[in-house]
Amino acid sequence: xxxxxxxxxxxxxxxxxxxxxxxxxxxxxxxxxxxxxxxxxxxxxxxxxxxxxxxxxxxxxxxxxxxxxxxxxxxxxxxxxxxxxxxxxxxxxxxxxxxxxxxxxxxxxxxxxxxxxxxxxxxxxxxxxxxxxxxxxxxxxxxxxxxxxxxxxxxxxxxxxxxxxxxxxxxxxxxxxxxxxxxxxxxxxxxxxxxxxxxxxxxxxxxxxxxxxxxxxxxxxxxxxxxxxxxxxxxxxxxxxxxxxxxxxxxxxxxxxxxxxxxxxxxxxxxxxxxxxxxxxxxxxxxxxxxxxxxxxxxxxxxxxxxxxxxxxxxxxxxxxxxxxxxxxxxxxxxxxxxxxxxxxxxxxxxxxxxxxxxxxxxxxxxxxxxxxxx
Amino acid sequence: xxxxxxxxxxxxxxxxxxxxxxxxxxxxxxxxxxxxxxxxxxxxxxxxxxxxxxxxxxxxxxxxxxxxxxxxxxxxxxxxxxxxxxxxxxxxxxxxxxxxxxxxxxxxxxxxxxxxxxxxxxxxxxxxxxxxxxxxxxxxxxxxxxxxxxxxxxxxxxxxxxxxxxxxxxxxxxxxxxxxxxxxxxxxxxxxxxxxxxxxxxxxxxxxxxxxxxxxxxxxxxxxxxxxxxxxxxxxxxxxxxxxxxxxxxxxxxxxxxxxxxxxxxxxxxxxxxxxxxxxxxxxxxxxxxxxxxxxxxxxxxxxxxxxxxxxxxxxxxxxxxxxxxxxxxxxxxxxxxxxxx
Lengths: 375, 342
Known about the structure:
Chain A is mostly helical. Helix content of chain A is 69%, strand content 4%. Chain A is globular, with a radius of gyration of 22 Å. Mean pLDDT of chain A is 86; it is low at 338-375. Chain B has 12 helices and 12 strands.
């Protein structure tokens, strides 16, 4: 294997990207004009645009989830927050005398975001203030939140007919879907704030060892609460997109299981579930992989009863391929004598939940299958 | 560990606080559930001082607008009939329903009705009801049991018939046509009785004729958002869809948005057949976007009360009562729209 290829293959984003490309190409076999993007009604129109647009809510939720996981937590309540955010916004808009008034919609949206940030703070306080296990603390809101969303909508599906609100999830700006613009902006801003300042380092430090971080003077408690609040804010944004896209708030089904998709996106992106390091770019790729997978299921015509198994197989494949230990074991059997250059790749072997990122040298594992098994 | 050892008191207080909080939460949740289960304290007698007929009813839960309309219909009809209704919401849990039925038996109600969450596991509790001499009515959903004497009657929709009715409309509409008709189907939640039966009823009838071709078929989970997402992808992959069959109105409403966003006209480029009959779907029919809606009627309260009265009087009732349902085409929609309650 030439060194450049080996270095590419060792990059942590190589396998998710390869899978994304493979999925996209599969679609072309079934829909020849899959990659074509036209301009229709003054905006971009095509399958790729759909994937970006429908994937935006997941991307947003996964972004917040990445930071929560980075500090060693997890947030199961994002799906419920998605439902609550849509419910609060739609209910307020449906009560407006004039649903087309921009001011009224802005107030409704701000109210929804505010309520959800408060819920995020609640999560953060349970985790950092009271010291509950994150999975239990957020489970409370996951279960109760969906009930709250249904209470807000009185068990009905609240429909709205508001042009300004529809813009968020279904509108276009400069030819691009507004939801994509919003998600991309949040991604870039978050990236700048955590990577251009010390914040990212502080988060990773808290995720690595909370007590040690506190002792060196990092305000772990405040940071934790802030991160949970940010995660809920992201989920709230996603909730607005979802409900705005269909112009209705469904307390029972909006954002159902999105927490699992978000965690999956984070894992595919190479963030370790044990906390302590994170990759925002990887998360974005992960979210796109998941949405592309859904689209592929619809285009290829996988029978509904096998959809979940099909998805599981693809996800399993990407997770396995991403694990340096697995790759070393399987690939080195096929290529028994890998050259030193290949091994020398700066494999940022973070990958999956095996936690192998912590073990020092995935590269050395590549040399010998036996070592790989002992990892 | 040494870190925590320096502050021995804090972890313990934290743990205690967390435990207390968890206990408090559990209790408050239980209290909420309990409040829902408590039967309304009725006087038990009507205006004339005669003893009121007592009907105990255990509802599945309140998962959809359809279900909310179903609950309201039962409550209103019981009031209108002058019965005392003991209502309990099972919150989608079988154990809650079994507990509610046992409570009804202890309270010696005259008739028990319930809409079973799942199909199996009812034999024991229904035997208890039978031993107490209380007749049982199943509403909306059936149960699976060897002993058909455990309940007196089952009233509800026949999902296969609903699918067939939707298919029949399509066959009639295309009677004079000659070309191929490409159909896309949005299924309900995979594995649910309505999804399986509606698919079967529709496809068994329609696909007999080779002119009809099912080109795309996927689950939309009975929701607007999924219906829209799946239809968006269908439209990109299949340029030649003529007919959309949606297993419920919510998915049809989502699909309409997808069709419009793709620059097509629902009702003209793609004709839509749907099931349920919610208000929004009737509005869409008036707007010319849906061709036909097969009703799945939640308003079975009056029919249920009728059966309750007969059972109390020890009269004979049929083992299977079908709810009154209609098929509404576009031209009848405007007249029916004001009557829609859900």
